[in-house]
Every structure is written in C-alpha cells, then in structure tokens.
Amino acid sequence: MGAYENPVTVVDTESAKYWAQAIGNLGNTMVKSMELRRQRLAASNKAQAEQDKFTLDYSMKKRDHIYDVMAKANIINPSKQIAIDNLLKDNLKYWKMSQYGADETIKSYGLAQQGKVQKMLSSIVPLSETIDGNRREFISKYQPGNLGEQNNYVYNKDKQWENMQKVMMTDSGLNPGKAVWAYDPENLDAGFNINYTGERFKEEGGYNISATSLANYIPTAVPLANKELGSLLGPNDDNNPGGLDIVNAKGQLTDDNLNYDNVTVTPNPDGSADILTIQPAYGKIAGAINTRLETNAMAILKDTDRANAWWQNVMVKDSNGKPLPEGEGGEGIFTKEGTMAFVEAYKRYTGTLIPDSKYIDLNSDSGKAFLETTQGLAIIKKMNLKYNEETEKWTQVGVDRDSYKGDDSIEGLVYYDAQGERKVTKASQEKDVPKWKADKAATTTRLNTLNTNMKDLSLTGQQVSGSEGTTTINFNSAFKKKIDNLGFDVGEAKNDQIYGQVVKVRSQKTKEIIELHSKGMTLSQLKQRLYLLDGGNTSDQAYKDLAPTDPWDQYKQE
After folding, report:
1. Looking at the predicted structure, is the pLDDT value of residue 441 above 80?
2. Are residues 194 and 91 part of one domain?
3. In whole angstroms, what is the distance from residue 130 CA to residue 213 CA?
C-alpha cells in the first residue's frame, strides 16, 4: 500500500486522465479570472455582468462534468458530491471576491482561497484511488484468526489499529456503517475529513480521520519471510536475479552445495541399503550467503515497525513475542545487543529453509546413474557398498550393530555385524526397552486416548454468540469439569477487556501450562491447544484431524 502524495505509488489510470482534464479546465478558469482582473478597469459594466453570468453557467456545467469524471473513476459517493457542490460554490464566491473585492487585500485573499479550493478538488480522485487501493490490499491480507502469520498483519493493541480495522471493514461493506466526506470552509488547508458512524464506532459523533491520514495509513504486515528468503536461496535467473543458487527450482540443494564427504547409508532390517543420504555443505553455504544476510538484516533494522514484525512474528523463539530492546549503540533505535541478536536470528531462520539433505534411492534409475559418476564411485568405496546380484540390492559391508535402526523388540530380523557377518535379532525383554522408547510409546497411547475422548467434547452451554459471527467461551464450573475429565487442571478465570476471560490450564501429565482466551475461541482451536499441551506436535496427523475440514467452519459456532 502506497502513501498518498508518494510519486512512486501514483498510477496514471484512465480515471486520473479524466480528472486531470476536468481540473485543468478549472485551472483555466482561474487564469481567465486573473486576466479579467487586469482588464477590469477598462471593461464596461455590461461586460462585467455578462462575465458574471458566464462564470456562473460555466461552474454549473463544470459540476456535471466533474460528476461524470467521478463516475468513470468509480468513486461515486453522495457525501463527495455534496462536498464538490460546496467547493464549486466556494470557488465562485472566492472568484467574485478576487475580481470585485473592496480592496487589494480582499482580492488577494479571494485569489489565495481559490487556489486552495482548486487543490482540494484536484485531490479527490487520487485520494479516493489510494484509499481504495489500501482497502483492497488490507482485505486481501486481513485474516482475524491468523494475525501474526506471514502475509497477514501484526496484531496491535493500540486504538488506531482497532479503529482502522473497523474503517476498512466498513468501506468494504463487511461491517455496518457509513463514511461521510466533508470539509471545514473556514480551514481549507485541513483538506477533507471522513466521519465514520455505525454500531462498530462507539465514539460520540463517530470516528473522524483526515482523508490524507487514511490514504497514508499503512498497517504493518508480517513479511513473507519464507518466500523472500526462499528467493534468496533459489536459482539465479531472469525471474530471480537476486538468487544465490543454493537451491534449485525443485527445492533441492544444488550439487555444488552438497558435502560428498558426509554421506550416510541407513541399513534395512535385512542388511540391504536403499537410501543414500548426502549432507549439505553447511560451511560453504554459510560463507556464500553470510554477507548478503547481514546486509538484508541491517536494512530491515532501519524500519522499526518492519524489524519488530520480523522479530516478534517470524523469529518467535528468539523474541519470545517481545519487541527488540530500544536504545543507542545499534541500528536505528535498537541497542547494539538487540541489533546483533536480530542479525543472528535472521541467519538462523534462513538456515531452517535450507533442505536438510539430498536423498538418493540407490535402486532407482537416477540412483544407478549417480553411482556410475566419479562422486558415486567414490561413495561406493568410502561406504564399502557391495551389490548382491542374487537379491539385486546394495549392502554395506561391516555395518556396526550400534548404528542399526531396526526394532530390537522384533525377533528374526537379519543384520550384519562390524565384521560383515550375518546375524539374526532376538526379541528384547521389556526391561531392556530404552526409557526414551517407553516414554514415546506412553505419550502416543495417551494422546490417542485424549484424541478419542475429545471427539465427544461439547461446549453447549459454555459458548455464547458474539458480534460478527464470533463466539466467546464461558470458563464456568461446567467447563472446568469437562476439561478436568480430560486430564487438565483449570485455574480461576480473570476478566480481560481485550481477550474476554483469561484462564490458565495445566496438563496433569506434562505439567506444562498455557493461557486460554475466551473471546473468539472455537471448539476446534480449544482441542488443538489441549492436544499440544499434553505433548503433541503440530505435525501429528491427530492434531491436524482436530481442525475443521471446511476452513470456513472455524467461523461457525460449535
């Protein structure tokens, strides 16, 4: 969204051309007025009277022309029409003052006021187009349930953000209300004011904002970090001239950025090997992108809002949701420590977007072709791979038993020891099962049970309708009992102006604690929060199954 009066954002549309023509004609009228002023003393009274009539008729005709321009620009608004009518009347008034004022002071004042009127008239279309463009971009990104996500907006608690959401929704017809354009004839320098009224605007007399301020309002968006950094890592071509060729068009590491000295083979239970894993050349990659990342990070830090959008919403683990510390010694208003922390976090986040490894299926056509290359032949020798003609599989001779990844609890699995001798597993006793494996199994069983029990969870009687299709959960005694039966402890609810009720919930198993907000929370969201609290992960299929199948269902009462 571009700021009003920023030349970069001004687009020469057809509507703008129409408007320019209209305003140009009005400007010609002013020029004619100045010429008539110079001829005033020589003109007859009859000529002056005829000129007055001409000007009045011309202004009325010009009114119709301006409305036609507005219609073509698709910015028709009754209040704008009224404002234009009043401005044209003021234009005529000040023209007469500049021509027939009692003295030069009054004439000069009339001429100056006429210029202000012309400026306001010429601003209507570009202001309207900028505001409309901002609104359309706002709506394209604004997802109330996903504030803080990439390509959405940063959630702000300030009053301006609260009102601007309502303004954009009202202008889009998604909230009830109306917008009225007006101006103060005694203060033309202030330009147009827009008054918003409706049930969402609680202020006495509605919410007022200048048209210029609205045009210049640019809410802070969470950057498309993955796309931006993905382009940086991607191929360097005409479509992506800034790419560093770390990752190819398929999202795979390029051959130049693989470490062929760091290769692993994971054996199958029968001792055969199917998958060859080649690790990234992290040192080489880091050296190639380090300077670029530092430059990009320092550029981001020059914009306070943008920097905190990255820090609080992308680099969540580093920021813990808190803003960058402010003070002297760093970039812009940030401390030296804050600047360094941001740069390092920016680098680490980029690192998460680098593919972890390249995997080659040794038995595929591409895998066989790779093994015939110089690098492939070197890996065969390095990894001591042998091809079994009988089984038509590769085997890594001399596999250390400790590196075997099979299930020790299953009897009869074939493997090869460090000397290459064929061995067969014997089922482990329960006491020999590693603690981590037992804990994982217990967690899986517990989560599966929780998932099953939550299917019958209902908020009937605990959920009340809010405005605009939202709901609010009532954290009452019945709610606490339902949650307690699922294995969670619920604290005392506290009222909050923004979040409704706030309550802390503790898992009886993991001992972890989270804070729940009643306002706008759906049943699906509640289930997912409880699942994570009890030790689940967002990647679990059980977690995903708790979300509504239809994305629009999240806005429905459950």
Report:
1. no
2. yes
3. 11
Whether residue 72 is found in the same domain as residue 192: yes
Q: Containing domain of residue 479, as a range?
A: 435-555
Question: Among the residues of 101-201, which ranges form H helices?
Answer: 104-141, 159-171
425 compared with 546, residue with greater pLDDT: 546
In a shared domain, residues 441 and 393: no
Q: Which two three-digit tokens encode residue 303?
A: 């914009």
Give residues with Cβ within 8 angstroms of 358, minimum separation 6.
Answer: 252, 253, 258, 277, 278, 280
Please report which confidence band the pLDDT of residue 199 belongs to, taking 50, 70 and 90 as the band edges.
confident
**Token reading at 176:** 């009830």
Radius of gyration of the chain, Cα coordinates, nearest whole angstrom: 35
Per-residue pLDDT at 160: 76
- 530/520 Cα distance (integer angstroms): 16
19 and 157 within one domain: yes
Percentage of the chain lying above the pLDDT 70 cut: 70
What counts of helices (H) and strands (E) characterise the chain? 17, 16
Q: Is the domain of 216 the same as that of 279?
A: no
Dist CA 208 CA 463 (whole Å) = 35
User: Residue 502: what are its φ and ψ, rounded to 5°?
Assistant: -120, 130
Q: Write down the pLDDT at residue 207.
A: 92
- Average of per-residue pLDDT values in the chain: 75
- Cα 273 to Cα 186: distance, rounded to the nearest angstrom: 86
Residue 448 belongs to a domain: yes
Residues 6+ away with beta carbon under 8 Å from 32: none
Distance CA 27, CA 33 (A): 10
Specify which residues 56 forms β-bridges with.
none
Is the pLDDT at 36 greater than 60? The verdict is: no
On whether both 332 and 463 belong to a single domain, the answer is: no
Rounded CA separation 75/71 (Å): 6
CA–CA distance, 96 with 523 (Å, rounded to integer): 68
Q: Do 362 and 452 have their domain in common? A: no
pLDDT of residue 421: 58
* Residue 119, both tokens: 């400026």
Q: Is 51 among the domain residues?
A: yes
Beta-bridge partner residues of 237? 240
Task: Say if 416 falls within a structural domain.
Answer: no
Q: Where are the beta strands (DSSP E) in 248-351?
A: 258-267, 272-280
Pairing label, strands 471-473, 272-280 = unpaired
Looking at the fold, whether 48 and 179 belong to one and the same domain comes out as yes
What's the CA gap between 210 and 191, in Å, rounded?
7
- Closest by CA position to 262, among listed 282, 275, 278: 278
Last residue of a domain, one of 341, 370, 397: 397
What whole-number distance in Å separates Cα of residue 245 and Cα of residue 230?
11
The number of distinct structural domains making up the chain is 3
What letter would DSSP give residue 148? Answer: T
Domain assignment of residue 463, yes or no: yes
Helix (H), strand (E), coil (C) string for 405-417: CCCCCCCCCEEEC
Residue among 261, 228, 250, 553 nearest 379 (CA): 261
Euclidean distance between CA atoms 63 and 57, whole angstroms:
10
